[in-house]
Design the sequence.
């Protein structure tokens, strides 16, 4: 999963060199990420890292790509409550993580609120690679048992984002953003909500 993220960032830099710096914006962001769909309550608030590259078609319209990495840890108390287990009777230890890596094509449109302030909306589609790794160890008295899960799949996904950047064109710009991700899974969907701090040039 980390190798995929590095590959995605490398592709962004290659794209930057291919187009020409004046027409390309390279950026990234970081912040909290939350699973907000069914069973999202059994995962703690996580984090995400993002990298993007956009080619400027006009002053207000860009096309490009985005790579995202989201990571979450299980909420042991929520898992026990959901399973109806009493912590005073059972001794349960849950470890592991849930990782989402996304490669997304995107378009972005912006409105200049002032010479140094841009409001933007972006959206697109692509693929999300999901991996869940966990180990559950349970015991009651002298009886104990454990189980491990390591599952991976790739699913189509959509996203929409909104944010604001501050700074002059051609220089480093700083901003904030929120994004909603919809991932199509078998017999349903998974949604992620992120809020972050970004930098772009």
Sequence:
């Amino acid at each position: 999963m980390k190798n995929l993220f590095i590959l995605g960032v490398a592709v962004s830099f290659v794209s930057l060199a291919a187009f020409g710096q004046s027409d390309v914006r390279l950026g990234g962001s970081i912040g909290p990420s939350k699973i907000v769909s069914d069973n999202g309550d059994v995962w703690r608030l996580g984090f995400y890292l993002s990298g993007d590259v956009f080619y400027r078609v006009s002053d207000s319209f860009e096309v490009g790509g985005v790579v995202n990495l989201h990571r979450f840890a299980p909420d042991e108390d929520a898992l026990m409550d959901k399973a109806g287990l009493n912590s005073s009777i059972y001794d349960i230890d849950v470890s592991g993580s849930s990782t989402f890596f996304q490669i997304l094509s995107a378009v972005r449109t912006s409105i200049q609120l002032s010479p140094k302030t841009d409001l933007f909306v972006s959206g697109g589609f692509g693929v999300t690679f999901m991996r869940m790794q966990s180990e559950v160890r349970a015991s009651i008295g002298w009886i104990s048992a454990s189980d491990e899960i390591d599952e991976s799949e790739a699913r189509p996904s959509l996203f929409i984002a909104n944010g604001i950047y501050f700074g002059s064109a051609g220089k480093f710009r700083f901003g904030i953003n929120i994004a909603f991700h919809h991932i199509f899974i078998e017999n349903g969907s998974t949604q992620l909500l992120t809020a972050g701090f970004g930098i772009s040039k």
Q: What stands out?
A: The domain at 2-200 is CATH 2.40.160.20 (Porin). The chain has one domain: 2-200. Confidence is low (pLDDT under 50) at residues 15-20. Residues 46 and 142 are 35 Å apart (CA to CA).
